[in-house]
Amino acid sequence: MTIKVFDTQEVQDLLKAATNIEGAEGNPRVKQIINRLLADLFKAIDDLDITPDEIWAGVNYLNQLGRDGEAALLAAGLGLEKLLDIRMDAEDKQAGIEGGTPRTIEGPLYVAGAPVKDGLCKMDLDPDEDAGPLVIRGTVADLDGKPVANAIVECWHANSKGFYSHFDPTGAQTDFNLRGAVRTDAQGKYEFRTLMPVGYGCPPHGATQQLLNGLGRHGNRPAHVHFFVTSEQHRKLTTQFNIEGDPLIWDDFAYATREDLIPPVTEKTGGAGLGLKEDAYKEIVFDFVLTGLVQGQDNQLVNRLRASAKA
Ligand code: MBD
Ligand code: FE
């Protein structure tokens, strides 16, 4: 079938009416964006001859996506969140900003409100038989290598099942298990004592995995640890590192892996003296480099709906 109606007066009038593009009421930005997206959709329906059955499958899919609460998960899986990083990287490059720790996506599983500790935070509140101890430590510095004191390093990651507290489908974890926040000391140092995470997998029966199945894709991430690093005189850094050696490092369904975000994992002993659950432990040293404010502003603050809890 080669039905083309997009360029007809009737469809162009419909597009104008549906988005009230020539009217005075409404939010101009909403109208601009919806007009463009709807036009692109109308055009795609012509070009690909998308059938009524396919349209209704798509509409019902959106309902299911909402019921599953997975719209932000799908955004990560379709590379939409990565695209925002690519755009921010390009924006920084254009502005001549370089040299900081690379950004990578926040993902949908942050929970605000972790209590801030001075210098050191023990993140594992719940026992996890299958996870060995992990120390993550390092410094926060500026582009000149000067330590940043009083920076807040927030950290969150999964347990040995790949589940995050607050979002754990088994309900097994207490609030803020494997979620911590540390204020850096005068030398810019921070340290987290925690347990080794395992990679995340999308809920197997959720709407995100359903769409990924249609694309012939898996919905898994390599083991990783998330960070926000904030400081009054610097731009907020949103990043993650991967656990070296994970086979999915370059096959992340959310495209968050970057060359500089795969620190070495070192085998250590002496964990007993640190209060770890075993004497043998793994250590990752990861130093953050923050970039300066832009004309006195932090242009890295992203507004999005985030879960929060009280500790
Ligand atoms: C995660 O843990 C995550 O970091 C992202 C981006 C998506 C789903 C789960
Ligand atoms: Fe994650």
TrEMBL record:
Keyword Ligase among UniProt keywords: no
Pfam families for the chain: Dioxygenase_C, Dioxygenase_N
Protein origin, superkingdom: Bacteria
Gene3D superfamilies: Aromatic compound dioxygenase (2.60.130.10)
Stored InterPro entries: Catechol_dOase_N, Cchol_dOase_prob, Intradiol_dOase_C, Intradiol_dOase_core, Intradiol_RC_Dioxygenase
Entry cofactors: Fe(3+)
Gene Ontology biological process terms in this record: beta-ketoadipate pathway; catechol-containing compound catabolic process
Keywords: Aromatic hydrocarbons catabolism, Dioxygenase, Iron, Metal-binding, Oxidoreductase
SUPFAM superfamilies, alphabetized: Aromatic compound dioxygenase (SSF49482)
EC number: 1.13.11.1
GO molecular function, one term: catechol 1,2-dioxygenase activity
Pathway assigned in UniProt: Aromatic compound metabolism; beta-ketoadipate pathway; 5-oxo-4,5-dihydro-2-furylacetate from catechol: step 1/3
Keyword Metal-binding assigned: yes
Catalytic activity: catechol + O2 = cis,cis-muconate + 2 H(+)
Domain Intradiol ring-cleavage dioxygenases: 136-164
Family: Belongs to the intradiol ring-cleavage dioxygenase family.
Name the record gives this protein: catechol 1,2-dioxygenase
Organism of origin: Bordetella trematum
Gene name per UniProt: catA2
